[in-house]
Write a structure and sequence with these properties.
The structure holds two protein chains of two kinds.
Chain A (H helix, E strand, L loop, with lengths): L7 H12 L9 H7 L4 H17 L1 H17 L2 H18 L1 H9 L1 H9 L5 E2 H16 L4 E4 L7 E2 L3 E4 L2 E2 L5 H20 L10 H5 L8 H23 L1 H11 L10 H4 L6 H13 L15 H29 L12 E2 L7 E4 L2 E4 L2 H14 L35 E7 L4 E13 L7 H8 L1 H14 L3 E7 L4 E2 L1 H13 L8 E6 L4 E8 L7 H20 L2 E9 L5 E7 L7 H8 L9 H13 L5 E8 L13 H16 L2 E7 L5 H8 L4 E3 L6 H13 L1
Parallel strand pairs in A: 2-4, 10-16, 14-15, 14-17, 17-18, 18-19
Antiparallel strand pairs in A: 1-5, 3-4, 6-7, 7-8, 9-10, 11-13, 12-13, 15-16
Helix pairs in contact in A: 1-2, 1-3, 2-4, 3-4, 3-5, 4-5, 4-6, 5-6, 8-9, 9-12, 11-12, 11-14, 15-16, 18-20, 18-25, 20-25, 22-23, 23-24
Chain B lengths: L1 H6 L15 H10 L4 E4 L6 H12 L3 E5 L6 H5 E6 L2 E6 L1 H8 L2 E5 L6 H4 L11 E4 L4 E4 L5 E6 L12 H4 L3 E4 L5 H12 L3 H15 L12 H12 L4 H13 L3 H14 L1
Parallel strand pairs in B: 1-8, 1-9, 2-5, 5-8
Antiparallel strand pairs in B: 3-4, 6-7
Helix pairs in contact in B: 8-9, 8-10, 9-10, 9-12, 10-11, 11-12
The chains are: A alpha/beta, B alpha/beta.
Chain lengths: ~700, ~270
């Protein structure tokens, strides 16, 4: 590349070329003039990025080109890349408008990069805080950024926190502030801010409901509660209490007279409400505290009521089940269970018999204790007969399309950006519906001789016990070695000390995942061959005893990547699996990267020393629309395989695409694939290939 | 035969054990009826101490075997050794315990190889004999002999499960961490700290147990809490003692230890 700067006309021509695809009628002239003064390196860099961005959304390309002169002044080269990527990321997540906002906020982006401002982002502390809260409460509490992005409140299921904090001059202090806010919100739910069986918050707030004093009342309530809750926390967790006190600083003068009543280890909501009534008689505004959190009784009470109802139901069902097993089926309500409230309600006393609650009921009881301060007597009555089934809670996801929320999301690699698109692919999992019951039997009959041969070969591979002779220690004496040693000694040589036999077992520790292409292009004889190959594989693996699973994959764009379960790792090779093999059919497209990522994740859960991912495919990665086809798909697949390798999963591809060699070596590595020249050979070869891989 | 004698531990002084429910009575009844016992419970909740206490109470010698995945039948039953030009039989710990009418405690039984576990079957049912194949000998168990096995249902992998044919020979006793007040008493006594410190340590234990399944395989055991208490009794500052004895002992994961440190600071 020459050093010569591009002139405006040249820049304009190149910008037009990359932005031309869009229907915008804007001219690139003005932009090009602004770019003329940049050094050639920066000009080229910019043109690259504009091209990449325009492939996502032309408007972003325009904006980047427009802002570039300013951006190059404010940001260094690496930060420039990060800035563009942040914009594209925002587009993937929240669309064009968000992307524009992120890109325009150059100043904010620079400040964030500088790091000299002690901003602590929610994302930085989320994981740690969520574990901390799990430790405190024992029930999973959600954490989220509040809608306004600035205040903190809770609906008692989820704690809503500010998106970022920068009130304190050091990052560490801001982190502490986050922790304090979260603790105060947790304490609201834990120590009964939203009422108990004996104290109704809603009724207490009713006098100010709808009046102009409503907001003032809520603020006073929040301030008073922060006094009471701090005392409660300090009593139970002195260290944490000290941290809260440090963040709080000195008490505001208006709260000081109330400390006597509220700053007590046994103060309840009733005390707070009494003080609230007093404070509201005056006209003073509530004092501002550094760790002020908002109280939103309406939402919190609704969420809490829902949760209490849910947990009550779980608990009474569990008690019913226990009662049934205790030998009193049918007799309702004469026996009321007694719950050992101390130490987390782990046991119930039912008809003079102490039983342990099942874990989910124990959690429910604990949660009720936290919400209500007691487990209400009505849920200690067993529920009606025959209802102890979790099924009532689960929806019935019959078809994939009807399911809105994907089972998981995965990042996808965009080679043009050299970065991931976050949570880009939506994965839906489902079982393959059962097909013809006799299909596998027919295949086995047709290939009986071959299957016999495969089984024999694989049985030889199976791990067996072996005796190792001449060992320094072991279970038994090696008589041969012993005789030799005695002979040596008679002859005056030094006898060997290795006189024992040791039994060792060669344990195969291998888990294999077979990933079957169910794209539309496999329709017909490729699909037939795949199904026959699966039968051979199952026969082979059953005699070998390796853990294996089979999944089909197909899909239609990034928002519908379907994984079809044919056999789980835990499942036996039974009639259900055989019927599913028969039903493997050609579906839609081949978005391979996400399938590899998902199956790798499943494979990693297997407790095996070696993990193998084998793909049966008929062609290159492809998806609806022209984006995934070609280079993008190949690079994403390659990246996914690389990730798998880094996590210790070996991958291998068996394909019938004769042109496969062109791209497979790039994706799977030179020794990572086999191209079969005839699809009919797939069933014959597949077991052999596996044997080569796994021995 | 000297080796044999060292395997038998005679417990002369009463070990400290805080009874929680009916386990002592149940164990005594099982011993009287010659039934083997299975102790289930998380690590460090007092299973081993309980067996020691019962051995003392019943005045039986105690043989303890910590099972591991290379534990062979010969390691339990015995083997031939070569002395000079002769082979000499040496009893393994299980055979020694049977002969002496001791309590044999196989700790973490699931860790042992499957083919090894099977040798205890004839001992654990009405036959009460130990077959020593290599000598062609059947060793009958005297009345005092008792087999006790333990396992931790908490971190069982799919590969490590007790087969029903094994577990259905045993009387099973459930163990868990004691409730807060009792646990505080144990920590105070064993760790040599005052009641307030013990209460805080038990609180810490409770907080870490809340994290079970959310990043930790197990919360802090009573044993760990006692370790922390002992460090404090030796003059180490509370926060430092808990970090070393609890937080670092529970996890290697940096994020997790951060969280555990937070919890330690919350309590002290």
């Amino acid at each position: 590349m020459s050093e010569r700067r591009l002139f405006a006309a040249e820049l304009e021509a190149r910008l037009d070329a990359v932005l031309f695809a869009s229907h915008s009628h804007r001219s690139a002239t003005g932009i090009a003039e602004g770019l003329e003064a940049l050094p050639r390196v920066q000009q080229e860099k910019l043109l690259d990025w504009v091209a990449v961005a325009a492939q996502t959304y032309a408007e972003i390309g325009y904006l980047i080109a427009t802002l570039a002169p300013q951006a190059f002044v404010m940001l260094d080269d690496a930060s420039f890349d990060a800035w563009v990527l942040a914009g594209l990321d925002a587009f993937d997540r929240d669309g064009g408008r968000a992307a524009m906002e992120v890109l325009r906020d150059l100043e904010g982006f620079r400040l964030k990069l500088d790091g000299d401002r002690p901003v602590v982002k929610f994302a930085e502390i989320e994981a740690r805080l969520s574990r901390f809260l799990q430790g405190l409460s024992g029930r999973p509490l959600g954490l989220s950024i509040s809608a306004s992005g600035a205040d903190a409140w809770t609906d008692t299921d989820t704690l809503y926190l500010p998106g970022q904090l920068d009130a304190q001059p050091q990052a560490g202090a801001n982190r502490k502030l986050y922790k304090t806010l979260a603790t105060m919100l947790w304490a609201q739910a834990r120590f009964g801010t939203f009422g108990s069986a004996h104290c109704d918050l809603d009724a207490a707030l009713a006098p100010w409901q709808g009046t102009e004093d409503q907001e003032r009342a809520l603020q006073w309530l929040a301030a008073l509660e922060s006094v009471r809750l701090e005392a409660r926390v300090t009593n139970e967790l002195p260290g944490l209490g000290a941290e809260i006190a440090a963040v709080r600083g000195l008490w505001p003068p208006s709260l000081e007279p109330l400390l006597v009543r509220l700053y007590q280890a046994d103060a309840t909501l009733a005390d707070t409400l009494a003080c609230l009534a007093e404070c509201m008689r005056g006209s003073a505004e509530a004092p501002h505290l550094p760790h002020a959190v908002r109280i939103d009784p309406a939402i919190a009470l609704r969420v809490r009521a829902e949760r209490i109802a849910r947990h009550k139901e779980i608990l009474s069902r569990a008690i019913h089940a226990l009662k049934g097993s205790a030998g009193h089926p049918g007799q309702r309500d004469e026996v009321m269970a007694q719950l050992a409230a101390e130490g987390g309600a782990a046991e119930i006393n039912l008809a003079e018999k102490v039983s342990a609650l099942p874990p989910e009921a124990r959690a429910a009881a604990q949660s009720l204790l936290q919400d209500l301060g007691e487990v209400p007597p009505e849920c200690l009555l067993p529920a009606g007969p025959g209802v102890w089934q979790a099924t009532a809670l689960k929806g019935d996801a019959e078809t994939l399309a009807s399911q809105l929320e994907p089972d998981c999301r995965y990042d996808e690699w965009d080679y043009r950006r050299k970065a991931y698109r976050h949570d880009w692919c939506h994965v839906f999992e489902a079982d393959v519906p059962a097909g013809a019951a006799d299909y596998v039997g027919a295949v086995k009959a047709r290939h009986a001789a071959l299957i016999r041969q495969i089984r024999r070969r694989f049985e030889m591979l199976r791990g067996e016990n072996r005796m190792l002779g001449r060992q320094p220690e072991g279970e038994e004496i090696d008589l041969d070695a012993m005789v030799d040693a005695l002979g040596d000694r008679r002859a005056g040589c030094e006898p060997s000390a290795r006189l024992f036999c040791q039994r060792i077992r060669n344990q195969r520790s291998l888990a294999a995942m077979f990933m079957v292409d169910m794209s539309g292009s496999t329709k017909g004889w490729v699909n037939d061959a795949e199904r026959e190959a699966l039968v051979m594989l199952c026969e082979a693996l059953e005699s070998l005893g390796d853990a294996y699973a089979i999944c089909g994959f197909s899909g239609w764009t990034r928002t519908r990547c379907d994984i079809y379960r044919i056999k789980h790792f835990a499942e036996r090779y039974d009639d259900a699996v055989r019927a599913r093999i028969a039903a493997v059919e050609a579906k839609d497209y081949t978005r391979m990267g996400v399938a590899i990522r998902h199956l790798t994740r499943l494979l990693l859960r297997q407790p095996a020393r070696h993990r193998l991912l084998v793909t049966l495919s008929d062609g290159r990665p492809d998806d609806f629309g022209d984006e995934y086809r070609g280079h993008y798909g190949i690079e994403d697949t390659r990246r996914a395989l690389q990730e798998a390798r880094e996590q210790g999963v070996r991958s291998y591809c068996i394909t019938i695409d004769r042109h496969g060699a062109d791209y497979l070596a790039h994706m799977y590595g030179a020794a990572g694939y086999t191209v079969l020249d005839d699809v009919k050979k797939l069933p014959l070869k597949v077991a052999d290939i596996y044997r080569r891989l796994a021995s | 035969m000297e080796a044999l004698a060292t395997q038998l531990a005679h417990i002369d002084t009463e070990p400290y054990y805080q009874s929680i429910a009916e386990e002592v009575t149940l164990f005594e009844a099982a011993h009287a009826q010659r039934l083997p016992v299975l102790l289930k419970g998380p690590t460090g909740c007092g299973k081993t101490r309980f067996v020691e206490y019962m051995a003392w109470r019943l005045k039986r010698p105690l043989v303890t075997v910590a099972c591991h995945d290379d534990l062979t039948t010969a390691d339990l039953v015995g083997r031939y050794l070569i002395v000079g030009n002769e082979t000499v039989w040496v009893d393994g710990p299980l055979t020694a315990a049977v002969r002496a009418g001791a309590i044999c405690y196989l700790d973490e039984i699931v860790e042992a190889r499957k083919d090894t576990i099977v040798v205890i079957h004839p001992l654990a049912d009405a036959r009460r004999v130990l077959a020593v194949d290599k000598r062609g000998e059947l060793v009958p168990a005297p009345a005092g002999f008792m087999l006790v096995i333990s396992y931790n249902p908490g971190y069982q992998s799919v590969l490590k499960e007790i087969k029903p044919s094994t577990r259905q020979r045993f009387v099973a006793l459930d163990f868990d961490y004691p409730e807060a007040a009792v646990e505080a008493g144990i920590v105070a006594r064993e760790g040599g700290v005052d009641a307030d410190i013990a209460r805080r340590l038990v609180k810490l234990g409770e907080l870490t147990r809340n994290l079970k399944g959310a990043g930790l395989d197990e919360g802090a055991s009573t044993r760990l809490l006692i370790h922390a208490a002992q460090l404090m009794a030796a003059g180490i500052a509370p926060e430092q003692a808990c970090t070393a004895a609890v937080a670092r002992a529970l996890s290697d994961d940096a994020d997790m230890t951060d969280t555990l440190d937070d919890l330690v600071r919350a309590v002290f």
